[in-house]
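Researcher: I've been going back and forth with a colleague about how Tyrosinase copper-binding domain-containing protein might be arranged in three dimensions. Neither of us has a model we trust, so I'd like an independent prediction. The organism is Microdochium trichocladiopsis, in case that matters for your notes. Sequence below.
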Amino acid sequence: MAGCRNDIRRRWGTLSAGERDNFVGAIRCLTQRPPRGIWGGARSLYDELVWVHSQQNGEIHGLDLFLPWHRYYLHVFKRLLIEQCGFNGPIPWWKETNNAGNFPASDIFSDRWFGALPQASNGAGQCLTNGAFGGLVDRINNRCVARGEIKSETNEITLGWEDICHGQQGNTFPQHRNCVELSNHSRMHRGLGPTMANAATSPADPVFFLHHQYVDWQWKRWQNAQPSRWQTISGCANKANPCAPLTRDTRLSSLGLYRDMTVGEILDTEGDVTCYTYDNLI
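Model: Here is an independent structure prediction for Tyrosinase copper-binding domain-containing protein. You can compare it with whatever you and your colleague have in mind.
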């Protein structure tokens, strides 16, 4: 039931500089915390967080599990920030369409916070050398975390697509999921590449988490349009033919990094388990 207000996810631009420092510092803390041992190649807890996503890549993209699993993943991320790094501030989200047309100018990509977003050169990005995450390495591919904006992709991130996915291509949950995943979501991944453009290991770039809060906001906005959507879900939980149905009992896993949960536990964000909403949806 809607109403939980313990955690209000706030747009990046509404946070004070100190709140932004706190959030970025907590992510940096995860990159320095020792791993739990779920993956032998990890040097940090953050490496294992990336590994969890990469190992399930084919199971969490291109099907209706996409939105519930990534909401669960954001919950795991938040719990790690709190439990491992003492984070106690608001979780920010990025209303990406506010920066459409000039993403590199956003102070997200400043030296104080997430580091620069250069333009791609011959399709290639540049290793991240400034900001809180300068020198960060994608341990799975043993490559530097790199960015290079491809404007032909980022220029297509629009309010229009938000509205289409909320309305005419959002009559059912599978329609909404398909629209959200393939429109602004995919374009931002490709447009910020190359690390973000790699579907499996894209969380190696910490800006992933701001981006996926935006994706989750789209789903939450859609859910709020009809209260029945807080409790019901449909579609496919896997890619078998016929597929296993996606239900409230479908399990969501982080491969031992955090406890498994069910779709029912995260479906209503304002329920007892996750207890959050977004600042412009109150």
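Researcher: What would you highlight for our discussion?
Model: I'd start with this: The longest helix spans residues 66-85. After that, consider the following. The chain has a mean pLDDT of 96.
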